[in-house]
Design a protein that fits this description.
328 residues; globular; alpha/beta; 13 helices; Rossmann fold; 4-stranded parallel beta sheet; 2 domains; 10 strands
Length: 328
């Protein structure tokens, strides 16, 4: 996170039940209530009953709009007038840009030059100002700090932000309302905003439910950190899941430890196979970062035998000109 100046840092407390409820009310006029779909074929393959929460059909093509919308619309009027700054190489940047456009305030997104073109186009398409920077986290942070100082805008962190986590939790609140009696809620994990939000929503609505994350084998800091009890930083990543390369944030790490969440791993090859299963049997386009949840479940079938699993398909922003099963 850029800098240590408290004025530049987003809220970093564990969101309360009241804040989750407020987030649900706040985003209701703007966010889609995404459908929950089933596939008998995939259930047979998995040996359990999977209820897919289709956040790939959310505005902006990913769950990220929930957290961004809550953070942007939670700003006081005088804060909002100065705009919002964030850093992102993908879905979060587009989500913040869209939320700011809906509120009618300026958005600036610091974007590393390695960002996928399809996601950069989405950020620009919603009217945000894009400030390019070098790829390293240090460069991203330095550029973000400079833009914040220049604009006086509010910073919305992609995941280490109470407002964002509360917004992401609304996906699981909806899922548990629509499908009572789930045994497990499962979602991908990267920075941890979605999974920590799921854990808080599960504690609120279904305290006995298991919360399980899914992570690529080549970016397994959340898995290893939760096992060891120490948050892991500074590791290189090696995965085609471009949305899952961030380190687990300090606040999500705290929440996931407190809620006793676990994380399962999947290979990139298994993730690509899971993408095809979702496409073939649900007729949905999802990105690798979303399919990793099904891949991890299929790699650990025995742990889910006969259970009812709510699975969040986190996004569908896939470059259709570079499908992973048609490129070398």
């Amino acid at each position: 996170m850029p800098g240590q100046d408290p004025a530049l840092l987003p809220p970093e407390h564990v969101p309360s039940a009241e804040e989750l409820a407020a987030a649900a009310r706040r985003i209701a006029p703007y966010a889609r209530r995404t459908p929950v779909l089933r596939s008998e074929w995939i259930d047979a393959l998995a040996g359990c009953h999977i209820h897919f929460k289709c956040e790939n059909l959310q505005r902006g093509g990913a769950f990220k709009f929930r957290g961004a919308c809550n953070a942007v619309f939670a700003l006081e009027a005088d804060q909002a007038r100065r705009g919002v700054v964030t850093q992102s190489s993908g879905n979060h940047g587009a989500a913040v840009a869209l939320a700011c456009r809906l509120r009618g305030i300026p958005a600036t997104v610091v974007v590393p030059r390695s960002a996928p073109r399809i996601k950069l186009k989405a950020i620009e398409g919603h009217g945000a100002r894009v400030v390019p920077c070098a790829v390293s986290q240090a460069d991203r942070d330095a550029t973000t700090r400079r833009v914040l100082e220049e604009t006086g805008a509010s910073y919305v962190h992609p995941f280490n932000d109470s407002r964002v986590i509360a917004g992401q939790a609304t996906a699981t609140l909806e899922l548990l309302e629509e499908v009572p009696g789930l045994d497990v809620v499962m979602a991908p994990v990267s920075g941890g905003g979605l999974l920590s939000g799921a854990a808080l929503a599960a504690r609120l609505r279904a305290p006995g439910i298991r919360v399980v994350g899914a992570e690529p084998e080549g970016a397994r800091d959340a898995h290893d950190g939760l096992v060891s009890g120490t948050r892991i930083t500074g590791r290189p990543t090696d995965t085609l899941c471009d949305g899952l390369r961030a380190e687990l944030g300090p606040l999500p790490f705290r929440i996931l430890r407190e809620q006793q969440a676990s994380v399962l791993l999947a290979s990139d090859a298994a993730t690509v196979a899971a993408m095809r299963q979702i496409f073939d049997h649900l007729k949905l386009v999802v990105e690798p970062s979303a399919a990793v949840a099904l891949a991890a479940l299929l790699a650990h079938r025995d742990a889910f035998a006969g259970l009812h699993v709510g699975m969040i398909l986190s996004g569908g922003n896939l470059d259709l000109d570079a499908l992973p099963w048609t490129t070398g």
